[in-house]
Design goal:
Chain lengths: 411, 411
């Protein structure tokens, strides 16, 4: 008899975005003429950069000719792309990486979800709260979570609250933890971590032989100086950290699918008998067995991000969204609502006014001014009392949304 | 302290293709002028069909325009592709499927490797021998294999030998098994299973509440009438079988990456307390949590396979390779070597002559006639004494290879 993985049964439904869709649909049904503006989902809207388009057309043509056709590529990605990643994203920051320390993949979602597979089930997992749900759910599926408590927390996970009270900086946990998920610039709060604070985590990981799983998918949005773009800017991080990067948010690849994960050879995990094992070898084995590489055409598109034009074009994309972020941040601030994030990230995290819970504020925003955002409670218990707006709509919609909030929202 | 998944340590290195590469390189170093022909790897060589190329160019252009740009798509794939899959690949065979029973993904390798995640670790796994190594390795990584014996078999897996003695048809196992991996047309043997034989497996699965994981990646190569294209042609299979299909081998997508997996809602797994759970729901949860969909551009390319031109073009591709298969099969047969497969599959499985082991025959073929194939032992213990040749080279190379074997190979 085929027995299922019962960890799946523990997972509640993907409540957040389906509940949002349900409430929006219900409102629309009653108000068919409402001009709803969506500032809820973390998905880009601008077209792909022209350099990427041009490179993909060329790659498509290569696939049409037997002399340049490509069959199976390396599961780890083509060297032409990995070399550019190292040259543009790491070397200028004084970080040296080898070709076989970078793994190209189809998305940071896949990689942050899959990476836990190379670890034992006995590891203690630490996540920030609020958090990107994939880190939690993938560990629930694997069997590391315990059960879900009435407080919305899994009994075996360690939660590190990130709220206004601690300036959204996770504090070192009291109990020992083995695998630590950090995401900066943060989704959903849009806040960042300084090098000094991040150094505390690297030191903790070194002291405890822990691993930091560092999600830097929003790195391109960093505008300020002291904010680390890569965890490897921190001394010692190459011994304890894996870094996830993506083309989704800098180059608009959410529907095009390309990302990469850096696994330095110095990063070690341990067997029960105390033997140290390179995570790089384990991840390589995972990827070569359970993945077959990113399409050649897509990798050629990603490569074009690293041309002179490509670099200028992705800067324009980021600037476009960051202008929206500024419009949202300053507009909301002017209403007296407390605002966080939006300076080095496309996410604005606001404190719901007058002590409303985040779903009530969702309803109010939808009903009063026809704007859809995301209730903070959807990202974890410490997200209650907060609300996320995203900078990914068009500038016109963003301006209109903020104008409505400033002029028509009754706080 | 971060503990690794020690199941990974059990895995031997990816010996097969690296050992082949090593021996070929060593030979080349000593014989730099040798014109080596590779009939070893299961990778296509013909360019993508013109209909696919044209559709991908259009899709790339859509991504360049904000009005037609696509961000995140459904993790399960776009309906435009799923509808065509059902209409062309299933409806004509009398198989009705719903949209949400088909999951588009980036490859049958990923899906056949990942699908075991939704099952408990206590399930007993059955594989044919020889076998596509991914089925075995993914279960080793998950912890279902036991240890690797000196006979090349994992202690906790059930092996079903497929050799000339049983006409390469796996026999129902004596012990009860829960998850059964079947691949027809088979890689590596190139042989098929009749509807009558496949019905025995469906009946076994129904009787034992087992699940059949049916890999039909080579379905397009079927030429004969009684060979099932889909396991759902067998009565009752929709209650017990999941089917994997790919665009890799019919449309040349090995480097373009698109496939799909069918999970009918009738297929059930069980909890320890005996509750029946739809695998469709579990797989949907797995894919929405750990995967983010296939690139829009690639799905548009796959959609074009289902146009009138696309269907003609993939038929030409298959015909091209099957002409090669015929050349190989008949050519090898004429030398007196016993040959299997190659009639409904791009793989030719031959019995190594004069009782040679499969690596000795590999060396002989490389040294005497400069042809690279794949030793059967690389696919499992029962592959010893066999050897795989593939039909994916150019017709010219294939003819030249067979001419060399006929005229210069000393048996």
């Amino acid at each position: 008899m085929a027995m299922i993985n019962e960890n799946y049964i523990k997972l509640p439904g993907s409540y957040l975005f389906s509940e949002i869709a349900k409430r929006v649909d219900a409102y629309k049904a009653e108000n068919p003429d409402a001009a709803i503006i969506k500032l809820g989902i973390g998905d880009v809207t601008r077209p792909l950069p022209p350099a990427v388009i041009s490179s993909m057309h060329k790659a498509v043509d290569e696939m049409a000719d037997e002399k340049t056709f490509r069959g199976y590529g390396p599961e780890q990605g083509y060297n032409f792309l990995i070399e550019k990643i190292i040259e543009f994203d790491y070397a200028p920051r004084g970080i040296s990486l080898n070709i076989d320390e970078v793994f190209v993949s189809d998305g940071s979602k896949s990689d942050t979800a899959n990476f836990q597979e190379i670890f034992g089930l006995e590891n203690k997992i630490a996540v920030t709260d609020p958090v990107y749900p994939v880190y939690v759910d993938s560990n629930v599926m694997a069997g590391r979570s315990g059960s879900l408590g009435a407080d919305g927390k899994w009994t075996d996970l360690t939660y590190m609250p990130c709220t206004a009270e601690n300036a959204f900086i996770p504090q070192l946990p009291n109990e020992k933890v083995d695998l630590i998920y950090l995401c900066f610039p943060n989704n959903p709060t849009g806040t960042t971590i300084s090098k000094t604070e991040l150094k505390k985590w690297v030191d903790y990981a070194k002291d405890n032989k822990s691993i930091i799983l560092y999600d830097a998918a929003y790195e391109a949005y960093i505008q300020e100086d002291d904010v680390p773009h890569s965890i490897y800017e921190i001394e010692g991080a190459k011994e304890v950290a894996v870094e996830f990067r993506s083309f989704s948010k800098n180059a608009g690849f959410t529907g095009t699918r390309c990302s990469y994960t850096v696994v330095p050879k110095e990063v070690l995990g341990y067997t029960a008998s105390g033997e140290a094992i390179e995570l790089n070898k384990l991840w390589n084995r995972r990827q070569t067995t359970k993945f077959n590489g990113v399409p050649y055409i897509i990798q050629k598109g990603a490569e074009a991000v690293y041309t002179l034009e490509g670099q200028q074009q992705i800067k324009s994309l980021v600037d476009y969204y960051m202008t929206n972020a500024k419009i949202i941040r300053e507009g909301i601030q002017s209403t007296g609502i407390e605002v966080f994030g939006g300076v080095n990230a496309p996410y604005i995290w606001l404190k719901t006014p007058t002590g409303q819970d985040s779903w009530s504020f969702f309803d109010k925003l939808l009903h009063d001014v026809n704007i859809v955002g995301t209730p903070g409670a959807g990202f974890g218990p410490s997200g209650e009392g907060y609300f996320r707006l995203t900078a990914f709509a068009s500038k016109k919609s963003t301006e209109e949304a903020i104008d409505r909030i400033k002029t028509r929202l009754k706080l």
